[in-house]
Amino acid sequence: MKGAFTTTGIILGKRDFGDQDRFITVLTQDRGKITCMAKGIRKISSRRNPPIELLNRVNLSLWKSTHHYYLTQTVLEERFADLKTTMDRLTSALFLAELVERLTPEETPLPELYQRLNEALSLMSFYPDQHERIRVASVLQILDRLGFLLDFRKCGSCHNLLPKENAFLDEKHFNLECRSCAEKNFGFKHELPLDTLKILHFLRQHPLLAVLQLKLEDSHVLALNTLGRLFLSQNLYEPLRCEAFLGEY
Fold first, then answer.
1. For residue 134, is it within any domain?
2. What's the pLDDT tens digit per position in 206-230?
3. Helix, strand or coil for residue 206?
4. pTM across the whole model
């Protein structure tokens, strides 16, 4: 519908256009991901430019024409400054923003996804030393909310409930199998311990703050990180730009 409106959103990406304009990609609270044109925003005199930083939560005034959104005014709500003070924290946060930008369709309201990303950035800012654990858990929660995550209760081959023991991940097809099916089917299998599967169940049913209160071992964080990034490597046409920097920081 054409016309003016206001919304709140988190800045996911920016792309220069011409000499003075810029495209801004935002995950909004009520309209999902939208990309708007900010005309003249790169002028030194532009008052709209300072709030438009990656990861900022802003209140936006927009005009929608027949085919495009145009930014008319911005008001900063939250800068999440503490997570931008070191490269490791910033990289974790940018990884989540890029993940959402790549996997989310345009103009599809996803209020729960917005809530998850906003919660992740808020917790990273409040618990900066826990940024890696927050990132790892958030990746899996985001994949779950977008419908990409596996059903960790049933075998993907025989469709029976998984027994209370370790399961096996077919890395090529990203398919979770019981021991019996894993032994029958060919392909490299990544073993997922039972305690990791229990953590995954908890991740799907509880807010991120509750996950932080779990007593996770480093091995658990590593297993969850491997699972999330394995999915991305198998399902994205090209790696996320931030992927290469995670190992650096």
1. yes
2. 999 998 898 888 888 988 988 888 8
3. coil
4. 0.89
